[in-house]
Design brief:
The strands form two sheets. A five-stranded mixed beta sheet has the order 5-2-3-6-7, sandwiched between helices. A two-stranded antiparallel sheet has the order 1-4. It is about 35% helix and about 20% strand. Helix 3 crosses helix 4 and helix 6 runs antiparallel to helix 7. It binds zinc ion (ZN). This is GTP cyclohydrolase 1. It comes from Nibea albiflora (Yellow drum).
């Protein structure tokens, strides 16, 4: 990871007077102030204990929602809603000053609608289906780590991509999950409209609920297109979020081992 900076909510930025108040760049984030310091998740490096606490205020109520009560979007739903999503894209094209009838754009609304359904296909899947037949009783009590899982998601504030890498570690307590399933959990939650903090936490909570492990750590390093497309100085900014549960949260040694292993 190269020199991540937190460009989004850094104190001292002139977002209130200039950036934040402006609708020109489509960013309302600047208006939502987070107190600097307190439990900051957007940080230059995976944060020590408590890093994830208190930073989910905005999403806290929905964050803890468990996969046990998930509702999914069906393929029939997709088919039914495709025309109206495409019609909405036609409206958007016109609103942007384009001519939806010109040749290059004729099929664009349908393509865009289909693509958007694909980008959000995580709504069509349930965590429980991934877990079926993939949880094994095992007397393994060493840390399990899967790092550099590719992640593509969509920022729920701007509907543009967030992409990056996810690192997962857990300390089993008699139960383990098929390794490929960790990547599947990432896929299901990331292919939805997201904020990075919630995505991080949802992955950690899903693993906790599925395996009841001794501890779980999830770190995500990601690039938000809504940030990097707005200015050269933000080109290389990365956002790092982490959620530590159980011993990963309580025991600095375990947490440090995890953080060291995902960097090596
Ligand atoms: Zn955004």
């Amino acid at each position: 990871m190269e020199h991540p900076k937190h460009t989004q909510h850094g104190p001292g930025e002139k977002k209130d007077s200039g950036d934040g108040g402006s609708v020109l760049n489509g960013h309302f984030d600047g208006l939502v102030k987070r107190p600097a310091g307190a439990g900051t998740v957007r940080a230059a490096a995976p944060q020590p204990p408590g890093a994830e606490s208190g930073s989910h205020r905005a999403a806290a109520s929905s964050v803890m929602e468990s996969w046990r009560e998930e509702r999914t979007r069906s393929l029939e739903d997709n088919e039914m809603s495709l025309p109206s999503i495409a019609a909405a894209y036609t409206t958007i094209l016109r609103g942007l000053g384009e001519d939806p009838q010109r040749q290059g754009l004729l099929k664009t609304p349908w393509r865009a609608a289909t693509a958007m359904q694909f980008f959000t296909k995580g709504y069509q899947e349930k965590i429980i289906d991934v877990l079926n037949d993939a949880i094994f009783d095992e007397d393994h009590d060493e840390m399990v780590i899967v790092k550099d899982i590719d992640m593509f998601s969509m920022c729920e504030h701007h509907l543009v991509p967030i992409f990056g890498r996810v690192h997962i570690g857990y300390l089993p307590n008699k139960r383990v999950l098929g390794l490929s399933k960790l990547a599947r959990i990432v896929e299901i939650y990331s292919r939805r409209l997201q904020v990075q903090e919630r995505l991080t936490k949802q992955i950690a909570v899903a693993i906790t609920e599925a395996l009841q492990p001794t501890g779980v750590g999830v770190v995500i390093e990601a690039t938000h297109m809504c940030m990097v497309m707005r200015g050269v100085q933000k080109m290389n900014s990365k956002t790092v979020t982490s959620t530590m549960l159980g011993v990963f949260r309580e025991d600095p040694k375990t947490r440090d081992e995890f953080l060291r292993l995902i960097r090596s």
